[in-house]
Amino acid sequence: MGLVEKLQAPVEKSNQMLNWFSWALLLYFRIHVAWVFFTSGWWKLNNWEQNLAVFEYEYQVPLLNYEVAAYLATFGELVFPLFLLAGLGTRFAAILIQFVNIVAVVSYYGTLAKGAGLPLHMLYGAMLLTCMVYGGGMVSVDHWLKSKFAKN
Q: Residues 10-23: pLDDT tens digits?
């Protein structure tokens, strides 16, 4: 047995372990991001007058009336995280939440540029990008549907 073969076995073993672990990481990313955005949407829904005031005077959502922006943001933060959490249409849900995340950064740029929240939005963006690239993982409705209905 040559040197390459001796080194290849532990590398393959570590790759198998990391591949097995990926489902947990993807699940954690989905739960964390879904929780953050859903709780934000829930606050908006339960404090609607304050929410409208914030959208009117503080957020500067480009191209949209503040009321339309408030409705869209609240809808996006309440609905899309549920799909992400379940892992149903994971990549599409992650793209939609990523859009909400980007609009939040752009519309609230003045405060975020000073450091308030920007690192968190970057972290959420990275977690969402991971879900966009790899999907929901083994613990998702997507995976279950694929295993149930995909042709072998």
A: 888 888 888 888 99
